[in-house]
Amino acid sequence: MTLTVTPLDNVGVEVSGFDINAPLTDEIKAALKALWYEHAILVFRDQDVDPEKQIAFSRIFGDLELHPLKVTQNDEYPELFELKNGGDMDKFQTAFYKGQEIVGRLDWHMDLHYTARPNHGALLRAVVVAEEDGLTGFGDLAKAYDALDDETKAILEKLEVVYSFSMQRRHMRYVNVDGYEPGPNSPMKPTDIGFPDFPDAAYPAVVTHPISGRKVLEVVEQFLDRVVTPQQFGLSNDESIELLERLIKHTTQPEFTYFHQWRKGDLVLWDNWRAMHCTTGTKVGVKRVINRTTIKGDVTLGRVLTTE
Ligand SMILES: O=C(O)CCC(=O)C(=O)O
Ligand SMILES: [Fe+2]
Q1: Whole-number pLDDT of residue 68
Q2: Which of 23, 29, 146, 297 is least surrounded by Cβ atoms within 10 Å, i.e. has the fewest?
Q3: How far apart are CA 18 and CA 2, in angstroms?
């Protein structure tokens, strides 16, 4: 097997020459892992894959983690996290965006960011492809960091940013809530969907990737709340808010993002220590099923806030 990489639109690569049914030698495994660290977002097309193969393939990249949201676990394979649109869960996942009812839209985020110990990564497999919409977006926060000017890099070196877990989008300070209305069954608090609550978590605004050593801009819109004690670093609250707004605009520019349009047989793997992701959601009634495996985060990148 000879792996070839082709850049995607802006960030990440498509890996071709890969067949999940061919023997996965140590050499191939090492090459896949190296590509994961080099590019953060890997797309594999036309794979003949089932749950067992997905799980075995994911284990190349580390131990797997079971998601805290048990209701979305597959009955037969606890390693599989099922994301479903067009079924029973729709009513909890439906909201209004500029008057349009959308199922399962998610803002830019990193998985388990609010715990201070994010997953290392995850692999998505399209089981049922939505006939329209249902894209997954990925953003490379190492490339976004590299592109910052030196003055901004110097300010960020000293700062920490806080993520505050909440269920309601309108409580999040840096997501765009223009024209947004929650749906009638949108969860209002974590217990509404059997989710635990989490205290705030702070991260260095620039996190050094534990394996590659690359600098990652740790500023992602979902749950982002504030800079820790900005005055201690020469910033007023207003300036710290403007800085975060500017950084969110920066990271979500097309040059740092890629939107994956799903086809049957697709696998997409990302490094959750470096890349953020989002989903566009689907219109009501559209079926979409994605199975996800999660690579455990074995490094604490942030700190749980007990004091600031
Ligand atoms: O449904 C998707 O496209 C991705 C959902 C997501 O955020 C995740 O799997 O972590
Ligand atoms: Fe996610």
Answers
A1: 59
A2: 23
A3: 7
Identity of the residue numbered 185: N
pTM to 2 decimals?
A: 0.96
What's the CA gap between 41 and 275, in Å, rounded?
7
* Residue 191 tokens, joined: 């217990």
**CATH number of the structural domain spanning residue 291:** 3.60.130.10
Which residue lies with its CA nearest to atom 3 of ligand 1?
136
| Domain span at 72 | 4-297
Residue 304 placed within a domain: no
302 occurs within a structural domain: no
| CA 150 to ligand 2 center in whole angstroms | 31
State which ligand 1 atom lies nearest to the alpha carbon of 278: 7
Per-chain mean pLDDT for the chain:
95
Q: With contact defined as beta carbons under 8 Å apart, do 145 and 217 qualify?
A: yes
Q: Return the ligand 1 atom nearest residue 81 CA.
A: 9
> In this structure, is residue 41 part of a structural domain?
yes
Q: How many domains does the chain have?
A: 1
Contact 169 CB / ligand 1 (< 6 Å) = no
Domain membership of residue 308 (yes or no) is no
The pLDDT tens digits of the residues spanning 40-80 come to 999 999 999 999 999 999 999 999 998 656 556 677 888 99
